[in-house]
Amino acid sequence: MQANAERISEDSLARGEARINRVVWVSRFMAAGLTAVVVAFFVLIEADQPWQYVGFPLLAALPLLYGIVSARHVRLRQVDMLRRYQAQLVMRMLELEEMASHDELTQLYNRRHFYERFQEMLARARAGKQSLALVMLDIDGLKKINDEYGHSVGDIMIANLAKVIAKHTRTNDVPARLGGDEFAILIPDTDKRGALALAQRLWGELEQKPMYEHEGLEVMLSVSIGVSGYPWGGEDVDEMTHWADSDMYANKVSRGLPRTPVPAQEQALQDDDGLGDFDRV
User: Fold this and answer.
1) Does residue 274 lie in a domain region?
2) In the predicted model, is pLDDT for residue 45 greater than 70?
């Protein structure tokens, strides 16, 4: 989108400058022609001394020169204003694209953009015979968190989880929020082992770091994670999504999740039951 916006801006700017140049040159020729007619008239009708044949054209040349300089100045100002307008237009287009492709709360990609990129990256992986990993995450007990602490706390925890996800992804990965409590990450050139390693890093940080802290209250957040990938976990978008979702559900069931949100102090006293156990992923 950025490249398209820049190309549109350059093409529009070139056309705008060409129109301004045409107007300026037409104005110059018209001014020069009108001046020549007026000078010729005065020379033929009024001139009776030799110096007048030189003086009249010189006197006429002064306003003509002024007009040429003024037209040049006006052209430069118009081009400058056009360039500023084009720059503002490009910035606005980029802002709109940012709004259209990103989730407002988390600043991760949204569902629409994620699946657009999914199709593109899968096609590229097929053509280049490369791997593509899909990691799906689901927050455990988000409704209970909202009921227990309020939706504002739930939003803070979602935003903080998004920061953790962004921290552990590369620039060419595609992290996204697919829904209220569902996230996904596309990881190009990555096999199953790499996808599981990312899941382990995410689990490890969430075990150590509360996603909400306020006045001594610390609330931990746990997530269920499922992985799939091309070609080892599906041949198309639907298959990869299905297997990652099934894997995520199996992980959620196997860990025997608590019925209510667990404060950090209590979480530290509980045994891990499945986190980091990739045989259950």
Assistant:
1) yes
2) no
In-domain check, residue 66? yes
Check whether residue 126 and residue 165 sit in a common domain: yes
Residue span of the structural domain in which 79 resides: 2-101
Instruction: Give the number of domains in the chain.
Output: 2
Q: What is the pLDDT of residue 42?
A: 59
Q: Are 272 and 207 in contact (CB under 8 A)?
A: yes
* Selected residue with higher pLDDT from 50 and 167: 167
CATH code: domain of residue 234: 3.30.70.270
Which token pair is 262? 């667990």
